[in-house]
Design brief:
heterodimer, A: alpha+beta, Alpha-Beta Plaits, Calcium-transporting ATPase, cytoplasmic transduction domain A, 7-stranded mixed beta sheet, 30 helices, B: mainly alpha
């Protein structure tokens, strides 16, 4: 069993993870193990799959991946306990009790709940997840909806705990997240079903009337027994009435609503045509005179419903993705048990100080849903977690990223007695927080109320198609009146007949299809590019240029502290990186991150092995250490001076410049001499300048609204070439809202933001765009969500909306041309059901090909 | 051709039955998820253990 060193290194390269087939890091190779794994997650997943004899998963998965041309990904196992799932509040909120014996199990409590699963992507995932009843006795059924990543689990409550199911899913590599708003989803599901049924019925009616119509048209050309003709007409009428009264009732209801609210709507001319055609058809059938148009009418109903369904489907797809993102935000908190109110001495309203100093005591923690937290509870917030409640720090000190709530780019240090707000992120170390307000009563909750109000006060826009429909109706009615009296005065007994023909032929079928088709094509293509568009009218709102307001922190900038500048010796970067890696201080972490990935990263890291020793993090704002025997001192100007070093003039100048720009300068000294000045700050997104330039060429005015310090905002504005007057800093969320609302008087306003502090402004703006990585609140307030990093997607969006509107215009022009042609024929008395039946599908096909042939989102990347 | 009077209504009754079946399917939720069943059919339905 001897192995030469060369062969072992060759073998090392070929060791692949048994689960995800990625190379296994050298340190993790276990020489005598049967299977090798790249990480703990993969190992967990593999061992469970293997132990349960579900190895065929790999065959399924590898085939699916090969089909898709993708590579497997390492499993994501969080190892959470999911104990909050067993909380009665949670169960009542998320899991419905099944009382019927649907599964043939008597005397047992069946519950059903829905989870969003992370990491589901292919058929193999479906297979594995739906094997859950095999893995866990007590689970009756597991059904995965791959499109929505939604798993529905039915389980026997006394046989298995929900947390157990959660842990199992997690250890399979699909961390579950409770799906929210059960009722909203079931309402939508029922609505979808009703729509589906209407389309089915309309389709059946359309098909059957067309079959009958073929016989009637054939009879027009040859001779047809009048008795059969009458029979066919009666059957056609019967089916036509079904089509109009059942699926077609949608249009009558829509038209009635439009009349009641006195707003033009496309349903009006459609309902007019359907109504006139239906009544005339029934009359003609009874009297056995004239033409009937039931084939055209039922096809009309069918096509319009299909068009609307397509648009609806695309929009709900976008909603689903947003819903999925929503559910990823944590809904649990760790409540500290055993600290009672009596241990807290409340000095005054602002400060709660811990009494018995429970520092060293072992605490018992329980995971509870955030909704179950009450005032005066104590929760633990770990580093990297977001604070779940408004409260006061009881114990521990850390620094807090408040950028989502206030727009402030610099982290704030917190220690016992400081007030913290929900929605901020704890950066460095765990703290205990005494709950002061939860849910609606928090600062975030109050801001969300503002969002609701802003959204409600927003003026609805009348869509182009509906505006057009108003005019259309007037024109058609006028023409119909002229034609009626014209023929009547000319003494024709067909005056009524021709008038009805006009009303039917003028039905804006293609017009009704134009918008839904163009919009659903655009939304679908946008989603594939990581742009989620929530409403159909959003694209129409964006087409006209106006004012574009951008948030700064997290929108124009990355929202993460990183290295933004480096002046001095580049060669000492590896030493800096080596030391900063040993610290958890936010600045140190930002430096480490910036030197690894950012703009100022170390270019060639060939010899990375260095000896680091004696790293000391000093409270005065600095860090010292020894790398390969060279003493390194890093920190603020004062810190470096306090270590007995001179700050040279160039460094002093640089420090001043960086401080003015709102960045934190870090002086780096090696072996007693200052060698470089690095600056840490919230850097601009790399594509910000290009994007802004493009936005201006598209005709938009660009301004900045930020909650951050005005000096920093001005600096960023300067970098981007925005005049100082157009960059406003230090704004409260309420002030942002007021600015948006007052600007709305002058034209369309697009707000782009990421934080809770932008949410109200996003909701009030003509269109709100939430950028990647933003807060949940901005996600729900905005009508567009960018699911990929960077600002370029905004430009894509604006261009696409312009193109979409152009497509809609073309389609509308085409359909109006057909209508004009048809109305002219009808006015001259030249139309009959056959001509109408040919004209209508041709016009619809034209619109269809225009919509799908358009390059709405095509020409870029 | 008198048979038309019987056959045609009969055909419509069949069509009506098909529509009724469709409505039942939709109401029982069979069209709620249009993506996953296409994947699920790829799996053999044997129980190994």
């Amino acid at each position: 069993m001897t192995m030469t060193s060369t062969s072992s290194s060759a073998a090392r390269e070929e060791v692949l993870c048994a689960h995800c087939h990625l190379p296994v890091p050298t340190g993790l190779i276990e020489t005598d193990a049967e299977h090798q794994f790249c990480c703990h997650g993969c190992k967990t997943v593999f061992s469970i799959i293997h132990a349960c004899h579900l190895d065929r998963y790999y065959a399924f998965r590898d085939r699916d991946l090969a089909d898709a041309g993708q590579a497997a990904e390492p499993a994501k196992v969080t190892g959470k306990s999911y104990r909050e799932f067993d909380d009665p509040t949670f169960l009542d909120l998320h899991a419905s009790l099944l009382t019927n014996s649907e599964f043939g199990i008597q005397n047992s409590e069946l519950r059903r709940t829905a989870f969003f699963l992370e990491g589901t992507h292919c058929a193999a995932c479906v297979w594995l997840v739906e094997k859950l009843p095999n893995l866990l006795p007590g689970v009756s059924e597991a059904r995965l909806d791959l499109g929505k990543s939604l798993l529905t689990v039915t389980w026997r409550q006394e046989a298995v705990a929900l947390s157990r199911i959660g842990r199992m899913l997690d250890s399979l590599g699909y961390p579950p997240h409770p799906a929210r708003s059960n009722t909203a989803r079931s309402v939508r599901k029922l609505d979808d079903r009703r729509q589906m049924i209407r389309i089915g019925v309309a389709g059946a009616c359309a098909g059957n009337t067309m079959l009958l119509a073929v016989a009637l048209y054939a009879g027009m050309l040859s001779t047809m027994d009048p008795a059969y003709r009458l029979f066919f007409r009666w059957l056609s009428t019967a089916i036509g009435i079904v089509a109009l009264a059942w699926p077609g009732s949608v249009f009558f209801r829509g038209a009635w609503a439009a009349i009641k609210t006195r707003t033009p709507h496309l349903d009006l001319p459609i309902a007019l045509a359907l109504g006139a055609g239906g009544i005339a058809g029934v009359y003609n059938t009874i009297t056995n005179t004239g033409d009937i148009y039931f084939d055209s009418l039922s096809v009309l109903v069918f096509l319009l419903l299909v068009g609307r369904f397509l648009q609806h489907r695309q929009q709900t797809l976008a909603d689903d993705s947003v819903e999925l993102l929503f559910s990823l935000t944590p809904m649990t908190a760790r409540r500290v048990m055993g600290i009672k109110n009596s241990e807290l001495r409340i000095e005054n309203d602002e400060r709660i100080v811990s009494g018995a100093a429970p520092v060293a005591r072992k605490r018992k923690l329980e995971e509870v849903p955030i909704t179950a937290l009450k005032v005066a509870d104590v929760v633990e917030v770990l580093a990297g977690e977001s604070v779940p409640v408004d409260g006061v720090v009881l114990e521990g000190s850390s620094s807090l990223d408040e950028s989502l709530l206030t727009g402030e780019s610099r982290a704030r240090g917190i220690s016992a007695g400081d007030v913290v707000h929900a929605g901020t992120v704890n950066l460095t170390s765990a703290v205990l927080v005494a709950v002061r307000a939860t849910g609606e009563e928090t600062r975030v909750g109050r801001l969300m109320r503002l969002v609701t109000q802003a959204a409600r006060s927003k003026a609805p826009i009348v869509l182009l198609a509906d505006r057009l429909a108003g005019w259309f109706l007037v024109v058609v009615l006028a023409i119909a009146a002229v034609v009626f009296f014209g023929w009547f005065l000319a003494g024709s007994k067909y005056a009524a007949e021709y008038t009805v023909a006009i009303l039917i032929v003028a039905c804006p079928c293609a017009l009704g299809l134009a918008t839904p088709l163009a919009v659903s094509v655009a939304i679908g293509r946008a989603a594939r590019r990581g742009i989620l568009i929530k409403g159909g009218e959003t694209l129409e709102r964006l087409a006209k240029p106006g004012l574009l307001l951008l948030d700064k922190t997290g929108t124009l900038t990355t929202g993460r502290i990183s290295v933004v500048n480096w002046v001095g010796d580049e060669s000492i970067k590896p030493l800096v990186l080596a030391i900063e890696r040993h610290s958890t201080h936010p600045t140190a972490r930002a430096m480490a991150e910036g030197l690894t990935n950012g703009e100022w990263r170390i270019e060639n890291r060939a010899n990375g092995d260095v000896q680091v020793a004696d790293v000391v993090q000093c409270a005065e704002g600095g860090i010292t250490g020894t790398v390969d025997g060279r003493a390194v001192v890093m920190g603020s100007r004062r810190f470096v001076r306090s270590r007995g070093m001179e700050i040279p003039g160039w460094a002093d100048e640089e420090i001043g410049k960086q401080l003015a720009a709102g960045a934190s300068p870090v002086v780096v000294a090696v072996e007693g001499a200052v060698r470089a000045v690095a600056a840490c700050g919230d850097g601009l997104r790399p594509d910000a300048a290009v994007t802004l330039a493009e936005l201006r060429t598209l005709g938009w005015r660009v301004e900045i609204l930020s909650g951050d310090d005005p000096a920093i905002v001005q600096h960023v504005a300067g970098q981007l070439g925005i005049p100082a007057g157009d960059a406003k800093g230090g704004l409260l969320p309420e002030q942002k809202l007021v600015i948006v609302q007052s600007e709305l008087q002058n034209g369309p306003v697009v707000m782009v933001g990421d934080g809770v502090n932008d949410a109200a402004a996003l909701a009030a703006a003509t269109v709100g765009i939430a950028v990647h990585g933003g807060a949940e609140a901005s996600l729900s307030a905005a009508s567009i969500y960018l699911n990929r990093p960077g600002l370029r997607a905004i430009v894509d969006c604006l261009r696409a909306s312009r193109r979409t509107l152009a497509v809609i215009h073309r389609a509308m022009a085409a359909s109006l041309a057909y209508n004009t042609f048809g109305v002219t024929l009808a006015a001259l008395g030249l139309i009959n059901p056959l001509v109408a039946a040919i004209l209508m599908p041709i016009s619809s096909l034209t619109v269809l090909s225009l919509a799908f042939g358009a390059k709405t989102f095509k020409n870029r990347e | 051709m008198v048979v038309l009077y019987v056959v045609l209504p009969l055909a419509l009754i069949f069509a009506g039955a098909a529509v009724a079946a469709f409505i039942w399917c939709a109401r029982s939720g069979q069209f709620d998820d249009l993506t996953t069943p296409a994947q699920r059919i790829l799996h053999d339905d044997d129980d190994e253990r």
